[in-house]
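Troubleshooting entry. Yesterday's outputs looked truncated, so today I'm pasting the complete records for two proteins to confirm everything comes through intact. If either block looks cut off, that's the bug. Protein one:
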Amino acid sequence: MDLYFSPLACSMATRVALYEAGQPANFLEVDPKTKQVRTDGSDFNSINPLGLVPTLRTDDGVVLTENAAILQYVADQFPRAGLGTTSNAERSRLHQWLCFIGTELHKGLFLPLLDKKAPPEAKAYALEKYTSRLDYLENHLKGRDYLLDHFSVADAYLVTVINWTMATPPIELAKWPALKAYYERLRTRPSVAKAIAEEFELYKAELARHKAAA
C-alpha cells in the first residue's frame, strides 16, 4: 500500500489511521510546489492528475483519492482496528462527519487562511462564514471524547485539520474550550503524536529546500 502525502497536509489523517490500525505502508512524500515524488523524482501528476494528496494505491493497484474515500477504505480494510462503524446508521454518521470536516472546515475555513495567494477579502469572508462551524463542534464535543462513541477515522481527520490552527493566528482555540481539550487530548494519542512528530520534521526540511531554491 502506497500513501502519497505532503508533510502536515490533510494526508496526515491517513497516516494516523494506518498507525492506529498497525498497518505498514510505503509513505511517499510529494513536494507541494514541484509535484515531484521525493523518493525517485517522478511526476506525481502521473499518479493523480489533480496533483492532490492524499492519494492511496492499494495492494491491488487501485488508486484512490479524496480524504473521505481513503479514510473509509482504511476503516473498512482493517475492521479489527475499530476505526469505522458496525451499523448502517453509524456508518452514515461517520460519513457525515468526514464530509463536514472536508467541506466546512478543511476547504471552507482553513484553505483560504492557509493559502498565501488568497486575498485578504477571501480570508475575512472565510472567517465570517465558517467560524460558526467551530461553535457547532464545540457544542457537540462537550462531554464527549470523540466525534462518535469511539476513536474513528473522522477523529484522525479532525485532529489533522485542527492542528493547522498553529499556522492560522485568527483562530484561537481558547475560544472553544471543549474543542481545545479534544485537540490536546488527541495530540497525546500515540498514533497522532507519532504522525505529528514525524511530519513536522519533514515539513521543516521541506521549508528549508524551498528557501534554498528561492
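Protein two, checking that the full record survives here as well:
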Amino acid sequence: MKTKKILAVASGGGHWVQLRRLQKAFSGHNQVYVTVKPDYQADTPEGAKFYTVRDATRWDKIGLIQLLLQLIVIVFKERPDIVISTGAAPGYFALRLGRLLGAKTIWIDSVANVEKISLSGEKVSKHVDHCLTQWQHLDGRGFKFKGNCL
C-alpha cells in the first residue's frame, strides 16, 4: 500500500480528543495535525507535522477569515491525499480546501451531537467524500454510522 499524507484537523476539547483516538488508523502514513492549541503537539506521534491555527466560531467573522487564510497556506503547502476532521470550523475549511486539491475528505461528526448533526457537519456534508455520525439513530441523510471514537 502506498504511503499517503493525512491531514487530520480538529478544534479543541472533545473534537481533539476524538481525533487523537483515530491516530492508530493513520499509522504507516505521513501525518499532519492541525488544531487550535499549541500544547496539543505533545499528543501527536513522533515525526508528525503539527500546526496551530486561530480558534474561531461563526460569530467571529474576522476570526473565521484569519482561520481560512491560515488553512489555505497549510493545505496548499502540505497537499494531503486525505483530509479528516472531527470538527468544527478548522475542519470545515480544511475539508473544503482539501477537496479543491483532489484530496479524499472525511467528516466525523462529534460524539457530543446526540440529538442532531452539527451545523458544521450539515454545511460540509455536500462537499466531502464521506460523512460519519457516531450515533446509530442519526444514520441517514448522507451520514453513515460505522461506530464511535469513545
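Both blocks look complete. Sanity check on protein two: The first strand starts at residue 5 and ends at 10.
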